[in-house]
Batch of 4 targets.
Target 1
Amino acid sequence: MIFAPDTEASLRSVVNLLNTNAGLVDRLETVADLDYYLDTERFTGARARNLAELRSVRQLRAQLHDIWIAEEDTAVRRVNAILRNAQALPQLIKHDGWDYHLHATTQSAPLYDRMAVEAAMAIAEVIRSKGLERLRICASSDCRAALVDLSRNRSKMYCDTGNCANREHVRAYRARKSGNS
């Protein structure tokens, strides 16, 4: 295990949020899209289910993308700003089949705050572990999806959203074959 299970789950949730805007179609355009994302991620707590909440989560997605590709000092400043603005107060919580893990907002806090703080706490753990290079954008030439490399040897290059690794391996094989002709 590289990170605590709740940190890994939070990082995967961030990847999934970022990847709602990685393809040709934005998959976070309606309140129903947001509900689908939150249900899929098993996100708990209060939800307003309105356009203001949708806009705030779309804004969070952009903020997290900027953190995802930032240098360490910039990522630290942005993570700290999220935690400061939400007045995060870490505490151990046990719920929904999870053993004790950290929450830094209440379940009644606005969705944006809960999502932002959860993401910031996970990214803070990545930064503390000197693992910021584990937060990546897919290396495929025709993909811009986010990924988190949880492999031991830090070698994951391609996302899980499609067949990027397979496509890139086929391209490399064909390039080698055409060079041998």
Note: The chain has a mean pLDDT of 94.
Target 2
Amino acid sequence: MARRYDPGRRDRIVRAALRVVAERGIGGLSHRTVAAEADVPLGSTTYHFASLDELLVAALRRSNENFARALRESGRLADPGTDLADELTRLLGEWFTGERRAIELEYELYLAALRRPALRPVAAEWTDGVGELLARRTDPATARALVALLDGISLQVLLTGGEFDAACTREMLARIVRGSGAR
């Protein structure tokens, strides 16, 4: 029997892994569950991803892209005439008005780096990439502080089940941008 050429298979496997984690959590992820979800032979998952960590790295990279893409594509973020705190608040607010399950999935994979060292460089890629984008408008230390605040706010909203508070977020971001927490 000839091998079937399937250039999109790797991508389908990654998308299937994201669906499995979204439905069952990281504990429910296995080559077998992903193969079933992707409707591919088990050998395909192990061919493309020798370990579950490799599969999780690919899934985290894919998942991380959502908010970073919104930042990159925001023409207002690059405009020095746009208030940085306002634009970041707007972007974070839009992110939270989207599919909450997708945000939870992103953070579940992101936080998996606590226990899976193979994921740590990918988590760092996200924070470094967003920091680099923000450093175009401010200095690197302030950019890192902004990323930390965005992460912290996101985690609090997700973990408490609360609502995104745009006014508070905007004020805290503005304080960091101004360089003083006393105002």
Note: The mean pLDDT is 89.
Target 3
Amino acid sequence: MKLLDHLEEWLISFLIAGATLVIFLAVIHRYASGVPIPYLQDWLLSMDVSWAQELCIYMFVWMAKFGAAYGVRSGIHVGVDVLVNRLQPKSRTICIVLSLLAGALFTGVVGTLGARFVWALSHTDSVSPDLEWPRWIIFLCVPLGSYLMCFRFLQVCYRFLRTHELPKHDHSQVEGLEAAGFTDSPDILSPGARP
């Protein structure tokens, strides 16, 4: 299970870093090719980087699908639980379990429909416009991400039934502020400030 957790985190990190790098290089190329330096400008204009935008879009879509599964596992999805928290413990448990199972059902259905779509698309010659990759590979993120999210809903449900605790993420806390010397003072967040 830890391997799947790490694989999920590495994939998301790789996709974010890769998309950022591709966008950065495409922007540098765009502006550098406008600089009138004879040989450099000719060389840059001979490069075709029209595929960069398309690649970044696909990388962000893949990152979003796997990031959503990560969000279920770590509890970072925003939820409105005011009414659920006012219920009696037994009713609260039933409501949470039904919600988690509904999430699993929904993502399982989306994964199955996505798998059927990818299967049908794999039997065509359809390719992406700029990269000219088979489109079924690009759309593979729908069943993979949805099935992973379905698994995460079931995993959270199982843990909730055992421990009666849901994964929680403190949305007011930003990781890394303590290491950078920031405090959580209500007046001002300043580097090196002491509480």
Note: The two ends are 39 Å apart (CA to CA).
Target 4
Amino acid sequence: MIPSRVLPISLRDANAFVLAHHRHSGQVRGCKFCVAVVDDLDAVHGVAIVGRPVARRLDDGKTAEVTRLCTDGIANGCSFLYSRCARIAKLMGYQKIITYTLATENGASLRASGWQCAPGLRGGGNWNVPGRPRADSRNTGPKRLYYKELR
């Protein structure tokens, strides 16, 4: 089965798909838009959730972030979703779209979609501080930043 098209999907339904299928990340709290990749029978095989950048210094009003992307293994589903998210973000007026992968992931679907990997690694710790304790995420390791200019 190959991806047929994308359809809008609610954040609730996208989060449910992420919880059922994502290897290491959970649901997100908010978004700008969500899309689902579907087959000819409109069965959902993957979702992408796009929102504001999590990193405050990147939240300039012109940058969108793919905060979750998940498929059930459909061939080319990830690159299909990354391409469509970039196209939709551009139509919405964004100038750049970003996402992060774990350092252990190879990013092939992003490169296939025309995204570039920024040099170096990002993050790697947690945000827990004495004045505001937070629960550790399963994803506290270093990450790679991928981006695509939308001009």
Note: The CA atoms of residues 95 and 132 lie 34 Å apart.
